[in-house]
Write a structure and sequence with these properties.
This protein is of the alpha+beta class. The protein contains 13 helices and 16 strands. The protein folds into two domains: 135 residues; 250 residues, Major capsid protein gp5 (Major capsid protein gp5 fold), CATH 3.30.2400.10. Helices cover 40% and strands 18% of the residues. The strands form three sheets. Strands 1, 2, 5, 6, 13, 14 and 15 form a seven-stranded mixed sheet that branches. A seven-stranded mixed sheet has the order 7-16-12-8-11-10-9. The chain has a two-stranded antiparallel sheet with strand order 3-4. A hairpin with a 2-residue loop joins β10 and β11.
């Protein structure tokens, strides 16, 4: 154990020294060596013990904040200083009309390293957000012990006690206990960026309808004794959010269930969370609304859902180039959003596009991207938080790679109460299938609160 901590400390010192001294090529040469790479990976794991590892399985959110996250924040700031130095060298080369491939490679490697370090900090921030929303099952108290025990028996043997069949229907479906359902929801909060920034509404019916005031109330000036004719009355426009059904269908052999060598509830929760989080991530951004949420990018001007909302479409700022964005275009995007909605506004983009934005400067030569400076704080662009969302498009002709706005006001996620599990030991022997479903919907509730940047057409 002492040897592992010594190696971890040495590895972190090597990383920090290389970054501070600008010796990034030496750093990457060291990382390229397998044994050193192992030590660096081990060091990062020790530095950020609360972050996800590569192995599968549910990981409980720790009640305390990992102390060494502070070191990661310091590392990302030091790496960003090295990036600025390398980027300055590249700009000098371009002014001299000389493009050194080595300098370009060095800059891109540092840029990627900054992204990796910031991603580690963002992951820690996501765990904090999930913990604040109740992740990890709270205190661990089981609210319905008898029903939970019956659920476990149903996992292993398909047993359903007659007195506890409140979650069982004629087809054998079983409504998951509150604690297990909460495990799934909390894990989705942790891994789904949209659930962290959007409004989430739990419903118990088949859908959710919202009325929007289209205004139009009339008024006028009158004298003391003049007649007061009827004025126009405000109109309301309805919008219905209908949840689609999200499912996963993992399998386990009957022998595995009989021997109970694994925590079955944990295993199933992991399988379901992995699939649900991926499907949700795509749907909240670009879903077509057919048996799934309607992604917010489908509401932009000219897209499939542009005419759906009573308030109209999400406004676009069109970039001048096909494959590049400018600082001025991002500033224009910020000022397109009404001032009253800017307090909780943020940028949303994927990692590739953020790597491009990281190179941009303002008129005074300052980089518009800034790393995290304290725990719980994301990186910023133009002073606004940034949320990395993998489902966002890359910068390409006609794509919409960057959005800006108050997503809690702009996007609504609908969760239909309850996760249902159908145990099927017959369809795929010797496997027992666990057909698990959850009804989820989503859509834009206020297109005025979101703006987007669209790249020029090819």
């Amino acid at each position: 154990m002492k040897k592992s901590y010594v190696l971890a400390g040495l590895a972190l010192l090597i990383v920090g020294a290389c970054v501070i001294l600008g010796g990034v090529p030496e750093l990457y040469a060291a990382v390229a060596h397998p044994s050193v790479h192992f030590d660096v990976a081990t060091a990062m794991t020790m530095a950020l013990p609360g972050l996800p590892h590569s192995r599968r399985g549910i990981m409980a959110v720790r009640a305390e904040t990992p102390v060494d996250v502070k070191a990661a924040i310091e590392a990302v700031n030091k790496a960003f200083e090295s990036f600025k130095s390398a980027h300055a060298d590249k700009e000098k080369e371009l002014l001299k009309k000389f493009d050194d491939v080595v300098t370009t490679e060095k800059m891109e490697r540092i840029n990627s390293s900054v992204g990796d370090l910031q991603k580690a900090v963002d992951d820690a921030n996501a765990k904090i957000a999930a913990m604040q929303m109740g992740a990890g099952g709270g205190t661990g108290e089981v609210r319905d012990r008898e029903y939970t025990d019956a659920f476990r028996a149903h996992f292993r043997k398909g047993e359903v006690q007659a007195s506890l069949n409140k979650g069982a229907d004629d087809e054998g479906g079983y409504l998951a206990p509150v604690e297990w359902d909460r495990t799934i929801v909390d894990k989705l909060v942790e891994v789904s960026p949209m659930r962290q920034i959007a409004q989430v509404q739990t419903i118990s019916g088949a859908g959710f309808k919202k009325l929007f005031n289209l205004r139009g109330t009339g008024s006028g000036w009158v004298g003391e004794t003049a007649a007061r004719p009827e004025t126009n009355t405000a109109e309301f426009g309805p919008l219905t959010f209908t949840p689609g059904e999200l499912y996963a269908n993992p399998a386990a052999t009957q022998q595995m269930l009989d021997d109970a060598e694994i925590n079955l509830e944990q295993w199933l929760a992991d399988e379901v969370e992995t699939e649900f989080s991926y499907q949700e991530g795509v749907a909240f951004v670009s879903g077509n609304g057919t048996n799934k949420p309607t992604g917010f990018l489908t509401y932009v001007t000219g897209a499939a859902s542009a005419a759906v909302h009573p308030f109209g479409a999400i406004q676009l700022k069109t970039a001048a180039a096909v494959g590049a964005v400018t600082t001025d275009e991002l500033i224009d995007l910020v000022y397109m959003l009404p001032q009253v909605m800017q307090q909780n506004a943020r940028f949303v983009t994927n990692r590739n596009a953020l790597g491009t934005v990281r190179k941009l400067k303002d008129g005074d030569g300052n980089y518009i991207w800034q790393p995290s400076f304290q725990l719980g704080q994301p990186s910023q662009v133009l002073g606004y938080p940034v949320t990395e969302m993998a489902a966002m498009p890359n910068i390409a002709a006609g794509a919409v790679p960057i959005a800006f706005g108050d997503f809690r006001r702009g996007y609504l996620i609908i969760d239909r109460t309850g996760v249902r599990v159908l145990r099927d030991p017959y369809s795929n022997k010797p496997y027992v299938m666990f057909y698990t479903t959850k009804r989820v919907g989503g859509g834009v509730q206020d297109p005025q609160a979101i703006k987007a940047l669209k790249m020029a057409a090819a």
